[in-house]
Amino acid sequence: MSDLRSKADHTAAIRRDRRMAVVVNTRSRRGRRHYFEALDLIHQQGFEPLGEFSVVNPKRLRDHLDKALALEPDVLVVGGGDGTLSSAVRHIAHRDVALGVLPLGTTNNFARSLGLPLDLPGAIRVFSEGKVADIDLGMADDRPFANLASFGVSVEVAGTVKPWLKRLLGRPAYPLTALRVLPGHQPFRAYITVDGRRHELLTHQLNIANGRFHGGWQVAKDISIDNGQLVAYQLGSGKRLRLLLETLARATTGRWRSLAGGPFVVGREMLLETDPPMAADVDGEVRLRTPIRLRVVPNGVRVMVPEDFVDT
Q1: CATH T-level fold of 7-135+301-305
Q2: 127: Cβ–Cβ under 8 A, 6 or more apart, which residues?
């Protein structure tokens, strides 16, 4: 990204010229309910967006993002859940435009990884009071991702969880669905090769994270979306009860406080093989299967973050 404006110049341009476009997925958990409130708050911050797009049909999201980017904004504000934001990340990677985030989903992992306020007024204040930073971009084969690639029971859960349950309960909808799915789920063997070393494990669930959060809960305090590393970790082992207990313990106590204290494999590039071959959930989209090569592109995406975000 060396041919782009400096981050300081980019931040100054946003505050001075206020060239913004807004795209909100109104099919997201809170998108439809808060769409007009978000626009009102944006106007109150002194922005007059070049374009305001409501995405009613998720299949049209890419078209709306293209139309918004054609207006040449300095900041593209996108509202929705992690899947919506991952699509936006793929659109703006390596471009001279910053992504502004409206956290309107169920778990908001990406927003949490950026240290953003999860309330609308707080998130929108970041556009006028925050700064431009660049963060890492994950790659699963040739597919970019912002937060997480996951394998195992979570893929089945993601395809099974009911939209009405997500709307009603929010984050708890996922572990409740997992309770129903897990008894019939078979463990798998995974092989992760990093820096020439091959790691083998038997598990029901494997995650490879770029960001710090999964399911709305922090993975470990020293994981960063801006450190040039991916982090692979399993939940539990081949035993279903251990998976459930460990997931609940991590969610309620945050016991994985450090990468040194948990079952982690860390690296800039990883080759994942599984037996049997597994489908991959890449930021909410199931399109790839193992074997998969995963890597990180440092500083691949520009985002708006709070002033105190540590930008390495």
Answers
A1: Rossmann fold (3.40.50)
A2: 14, 20, 42, 45, 47, 75, 77, 100, 304
Q: Is the pLDDT reported for residue 243 higher than 70?
A: no
Q: Are strands 197-203 and 51-55 parallel, antiparallel or unpaired?
A: unpaired
Residues 6+ apart with CB under 8 A from 116: 101, 103, 122, 123, 126, 305, 306
CA-to-CA dists, residue 128 to 13, 140, 226, angstroms: 11, 33, 22
DSSP state of 60: G
- Say whether 25 sits in a helix, a strand or coil: strand
Task: Tell me if domain 7-135+301-305 and domain 143-298 are identical in fold.
Answer: no
Is residue 31 classed as helix, strand or coil in its secondary structure?
A: helix
Longest dimension (CA), the chain: 57
Contact between residue 243 and residue 183 where contact means Cβ atoms under 8 Å apart:
no
The span from the CA of 210 to the CA of 224, in Å, is 7
Task: Give the tokens for residue 295.
Answer: 């890597």
Verify cis geometry, omega within 30 degrees of 0, for the bond prior to 291: yes
User: What is the per-residue pLDDT across 21-57, written as a single tens digit (0 to 9) for each?
Assistant: 999 998 876 777 888 999 999 999 999 999 999 998 8
One CATH from 1.25.40.20, 3.40.50.300, 2.60.200.40, 3.40.1570.10 for 143-298: 2.60.200.40
